[in-house]
Write a structure and sequence with these properties.
Radius of gyration: 13 Å
Shape: elongated
Largest sheet: none
Number of strands: 0
Strand content: under 5%
Amino acid sequence: MSCIVPTIDDMYDVYGSLDELQCFTDAVDRWDLEAMEDLPEYMKLCYLAMFNFGNEIASDVLKDHGLDVLPYIKKEVSKRLIR
């Protein structure tokens, strides 16, 4: 996730309009692929990479340790977007 966060941070600081960033934040809060449909094209790749990476980590932890960490991953991603 650490490689995706700087890209998303730049998107918030430099590239995104207020409306686009609100849409991205809403998509992160929903955490589903359908939310990606409402995003501008340039945000879709970032969202998909973040979504897939977070779900992959959560899946690995669930298989290896029997713990569902996806809610914690989603919470951390949301916290990083707001700061």
